[in-house]
Amino acid sequence: MSRILFTPPASDYQVSTDGSFRIRKAPTKPPVGARGDEAKKDNQKALKEHVKVISELQALLYAADRHSVLLVFQAMDAAGKDGTIRAVLSGVNPAGCQVQSFKSPSSRELDHDFLWRISQALPERGRIGVFNRSHYEEVLAVRVHPPYLEAQNLPTPKASGTEVWKNRHESINEFEKHLARNGTVILKFFLNVSKEEQRVRLLARIDEPASNWKFDPRDLRERELWPQYMHAFEDTLRSTSTPWAPWYAIPADDKAFMRREIARLVRETMEGLKLKFPKVSSEQLAEMKRLREVLAAE
Questions:
Q1: For the whole model, what pTM was predicted?
Q2: Distance (Å, rounded) from C-alpha 96 to C-alpha 157?
Q3: Do residues 162 and 96 make contact, with C-beta atoms less than 8 angstroms apart?
Q4: Which distant-in-sequence residues (6+ apart) come within 8 Å of 172 by Cβ?
Q5: How far apart are the C-alpha atoms of 59 and 193, rounded to whole Å?
Q6: Quick one: which of 91, 148, 156, 198 could link to 142 by a disulfide (CB 3.0–4.6 Å)?
Q7: Spatial separation of the C-alpha atoms in residues 69 and 125, rounded to whole Å
Q8: 228 phi-psi bin (left φ>0, alpha ψ -120 to 50, beta other)
Q9: Dihedral, 147, 189, 173, 106 alpha carbons, nearest 10
Q10: How many CB atoms lie within 10 A of CB 189?
């Protein structure tokens, strides 16, 4: 087995690579001792510290130009993906961060394999890339909605059945291993919101005028398919959490806790890369000294 570029940071929410993950056992709320107003303040304070360090590490990542970091976010509607991405990466230089959202594929994209459009959006070395939804839609939304798969005009007679998803999971694992071998560090976050908390947040989008723009009637239609989505998420996380691209099922009912935990994982992952500024040779130092004298004499 090829060497893995990094050791995933420890977390109670890391999805095991042995296929034992069960979504019904995955918590949607933080531990009892990490709830309440005081805990919220602590979480917000810790988040600020993590964001500060991530910003400093991103400068090193950019200068070293040897790795890229890819953060994948998947969740049910109203789980808090957009706000979490904004909160965790608020201190990062925009020049060093790329955020990509994937909508329904175009006709051109449908004429390629399901990973083709993803490969076009990968972060360059030295940058942090964020996928707000991702290639995993191809084994989640497409699995829940069979007509989406039929529209892909695949050569197989039947575009359905567990074999399709098993094959796609295998393709994703190999694709992500290829990226890891070439310097991309991958962290994948499933924001695990409860159905009740989603109901509360969807109601808020209707009741609060400032949030009306967020409401989409389609979210309620997707909500009716909750059991099918949970089955798809469970199978996918069990099958695609690997040493080189781990999944974390983060409790999402408490946004402050969720953001703190994700920021910690990103920070510790980047710290684990032991990033350093590029070394300057003695010849370069001598030339810099000479040019400094020129500038100073002007």
A1: 0.93
A2: 44
A3: no
A4: 115, 135, 136, 139, 240
A5: 33
A6: 148
A7: 8
A8: alpha
A9: 40
A10: 27
